[in-house]
Amino acid sequence: MMQLCHFDIDQFLRNHWQKTPALIRNPWNDWRNPLEPDELAGLACEEGVESRLIMAAGDRLAMESGPLPETRFGDLGREPWTLLVQAVDQQVPDVAALIEPFRFVPDWRIDDVMVSYASDGGGVGAHFDQYDVFLVQGLGRRRWRVGPRCDSATPLLPHDDLRLIADFEATDEWVLEPGDILYVPPCFAHDGVAVGDDCMTYSIGFRAPSRAELVEHWSEHLVDALPDEDRYADPDLVRQAHPGEISASAIDRLHGLVLEALGDRTTFARWFGAYSSQPKYADTDWQPEEPADVNMARALIAAQVPLCRNPASRFAFMAQPDGAVTLFVDGQSFDCVGDGALLARALCGRGDLMVDPALAGSDTALTLIAALIDQGSVAFDEGE
């Protein structure tokens, strides 16, 4: 497995994370490009895989959404073009392995690995993102220009498909070689252009829910659970001087009614764990045709058959004060104690897990594994 050998994580987090861009010259122990261009093109032709083809059309860029016909790449002319494919980590294990060195950022923040291929001069234009990204150069060379921090007031060019900055002025510029990494914090303008053909870049992106998103979805969750009879009440009502006034005491009571519901931290934590573990791309269906056989699971654990996580699934846990663990997988929550808590922590570690053979005798652990198999989140790798 490739590792970041020449990279000071603590210094990076202290000086650059969500602060300033950082160029990291080939820090790998042995950089190897994990995906061939033809394989990426093949993924872009598949149903259920999100892909985009961006082509230069004079002084403008045009975008075409996938899946692309297999003949499309042979029809491309001499103008620069870029192919973008999302969530390649869910399709190619070697690409998924690129995430492992960046797990100094908590897993719940990880989004996916987007892979791009560009012909000479290809790019997607000057833009900014709302999330952190590590741009790992896989093949060829790419010139990156980075500009100042942007926001919702930054002028954009009129375009139906792309959010391109109208007046981009670079403050730094680098050419990345294979194995080099450029870190770009949220909202910093950046523009990457291929220098020569066979330019491949791996974009390891991170999620950051907006305040608006949290308020909207948390509120929706609460509304669904609140009974209709939970209403404003004023049993201490007294006659007021003017019937047309909304009094300060009424506002205090109404405001408190809302804040009391929104302010339940324990309920919020459980909701957020389930909400943040919902898979972004749930097309990789591992649900079995028949319910999981607990005795079969017991035998497979005893035989040291690895338990594998669905690459599209999201796993996270929250530790409880009493040593218990709340496990969140694909939008579902599981309260785990004892052996189940130990297993939950292990499941949130690596993608393939050799379950402790001692757990073959644990009904708690077997019940959890069976539930995760039934919802398509894990499966035993029996080598078939």
From TrEMBL:
InterPro entries for this protein: JmjC_dom (IPR003347), NO66-like (IPR039994), ROXA-like_wH (IPR046799)
Domain JmjC: residue ranges: 94-223
Enzyme nomenclature, EC number: 1.14.11.47
A GO cellular-component term linked to this record: ribosome
Cofactor(s) needed for function: Fe(2+)
PROSITE patterns: JMJC
Superkingdom of origin: Bacteria
One term of GO molecular function: oxidoreductase activity
Keywords: Dioxygenase, Iron, Metal-binding, Oxidoreductase, Ribonucleoprotein, Ribosomal protein
Pfam families, sorted: JmjC_2, WHD_ROXA
Keyword check for Oxidoreductase: yes
Protein name: 50S ribosomal protein L16 3-hydroxylase
Organism field: Sphingobium xenophagum
High-level lineage: Bacteria, Pseudomonadati, Pseudomonadota, Alphaproteobacteria, Sphingomonadales
